[in-house]
Amino acid sequence: MAGSTPLDKSPLLSPTSSRSVTETVNGSHKFVIQGFSLAKGMGVGKHIASDNFTVGGFQWAIYFYPDGKNPEDNSTYVSVFIALASEGTDVRALFELTLVDQSGKGKHKVHSHFDRSLESGPYTLKYRGSMWGYKRFFRRAALESSDYLKDDCLKINCTVGVVVSAVDCPRLHSIQVPESDIGAHFGMLLDNMEGSDINFEVAGEIFHAHKLVLAARSPTFRSKFFDGSDEDKVDIIVTDVEPKVFKAMLHFIYRDSLMVDVELETPSSSSVTSVSNSLTAKLLAAADSYGLERLRLMCESHLCKDISVKTVAEILALADRCNASDLKAVCLRFAAENLAAVMQSDGFEHLKENCPSLQSELLKTIAGCEEDCSSGGKSRSVWAQLSDGGDTNGRRVRQRT
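Structure for BTB/POZ and MATH domain-containing protein 4, as requested:
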């Protein structure tokens, strides 16, 4: 048999796509007509024009006819139009005219193309001077006795939406922008001490830094260096933090990240005190002291993973001292949901003896209210738990949710 040769087939090209987007470019103009009574009698077909305003690349103007535009109406109505005031051909647009109610009642008279379906689509203006509007916009006698006229003044608001179409073509190639590396660069500045102008002594250790960087990141440092007594100092002794905490704080200030030592710190499962003595807890206190809000939140997030029945009371007290509101809220919720077990912890005993205000806040969380709790029976039974470690019969009290 004679063999057949298959037809050569060209490889398929990747499909392409495009999208046509039609939308309006909107703009507004406010036209105030002062001396309405003096404008009357200027004649039918004669108008007062606003200043030109630009929307969608075209010039527009508002025309107000005090004696009307239509001779047949014999000045019974005022007329208002929006006119194309620049050269243009087949300009398609939506319009809105609003006669402002000056009584403050908000009962404006609005004629609008917007927010409604148009049977024939947007209005088309063929040439310069083309207009859209109303020959019988308002009966003049009614207008003169209405809230639209105040102190012989009318206010007209106009909105024009010019219809534009564009083809959106997806790009065949893209350029990847790497993540911000500003932290790495500032970190190098800290590491090599280039240009440093301030030295900190912390428990015998010296840390070199840059006043402008510290002031830009911390309102406390900014106040010290530019508004306080440390303005001219180049050597400052720090007594409120440990060296390792100060080093971690500088790391954040320059790099906007936590040190590896903090990141790798694991939740404690032993004693409660180890939580408050952790590097993260001490860094949280430093963040509060030096006004480092982002560092405070990062520490709160890290400590949140450490919350357990054994640690929640201590972390709650720490959060309260350091103004860590998000961490405090999580602790209160956790304690309320695990009240019976938390009450048996050593940390809870410390909380009862030393932090009565937190005890009150815990009660509010349990009761599920933000205002002061009432003195009803259920609230008193919870108070009994907080004071005595259980209800009067020794039973576990179901929490309120």
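The first strand starts at residue 19 and ends at 34.
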